[in-house]
Design goal:
Purple Acid Phosphatase, chain A, domain 2; about 25% helix; 9-stranded mixed sheet; 9 helices; binds zinc ion; 6-stranded mixed sheet; alpha/beta
Length: about 400
Amino acid sequence: MHRAPTAGQFEPGTHPIRLQPETRMFVRSCSLSSWSAAGAAAVAARAPASPPPLPSSPATPPPKLGSRSMASSGAGAGAGRVRLAVVGDVHDDWILDEDTKALHFLQPDLVLFTGDYGNENVQLVKSISDLQFPKAAILGNHDCWRTHQFSEKKVDRVRLQLASLGEQHVGYQCLDFPTIKLSVVGGRPFSCGGDRLFRPKLLSQRYGVDDMAGSARKIYDAATAAPEEHSVILLAHNGPTGLGSRIDDICGRDWVAGGGDHGDPDLEQAISDLQRETGVSIPLVVFGHMHKSLAYGGGLRKMIAFGANNQTIYLNGAVVPRVKPAEAMNPSTISTSERDELQESASVGPMSRAFTTVDLFDGTVEKISEVWVLVSGAQAELEEETVLYKRPCEHM
Ligand SMILES: [Zn+2]
């Protein structure tokens, strides 16, 4: 068993570890203070005069005095250390109190939600909007499960979800986080993947988007609105085309023999146009929709991919279901009666909750991990960390 390296740090003498989907690092009995202290150290490095933002995180990113004194030489430069926490497709697995405890433990500067909260689960989306962390979200295909059109007159569940999220719904929008020099730009809302627009009437009525080219243009325009010194994180419900067509590729079709590329062509178009025509820096594209567990027990999906020149990292955060009973109470190791009891108390018993953390330094992705945080009562601790990516540490 290996102990995972401290969050936000690199093991001394470690050299580039490109992509290690098979490298699983399990951390058990890791106290709250162990990972939390790492996050606190990262915060301290940015703002030595400020205490770590516990126990309650502010609604806006805390000031980072250290970062402002760093030399700035381009997009994202001078932003210092930044941690993102990605909440992949929720599918009704969200409890505000429990996820808040887990997030306090992880200490992200920004939380990203990839969509599919439930099937138009307005209450759940409202609960996410109540989360007291800086955040950005996008709605997925399940968030317009029954609503096919957008009406100014009728208050439907899509409108209620959009109203709850307000500016934090980034579909075709750019949301700036100046203190961490990041902007989050949203892809096409309600995407279901593939080469046809999902809910075309809704998209046309709400956003004036009638085809893939128009959609790509809106994503492009939103990204060019980001301040020049910001890096841009693209947040979409589904990833772009062009990242592979095998069953287990990051956007690969897993429900048909032979696979296929189920990415969003408009997102690929927008990214390639931005990279070709503008100086917009896109270190990271985050999405979900295509679940980690493949259909028909076909194994696990690749959750990370790299763009040309490795300038952009693509991250699929759809670890579904994202909540499971704590390891000690794993249903496969307990009796039927214990399991029934556990299911009855599932919402209050110790549960592990999945996130994908992304650590950036000056706008460049340093490390990406899938983490499971065990929340039990008032306690939160790291149960498991799987490092998906680690960057060479030239600056360390
Ligand atoms: Zn979806």
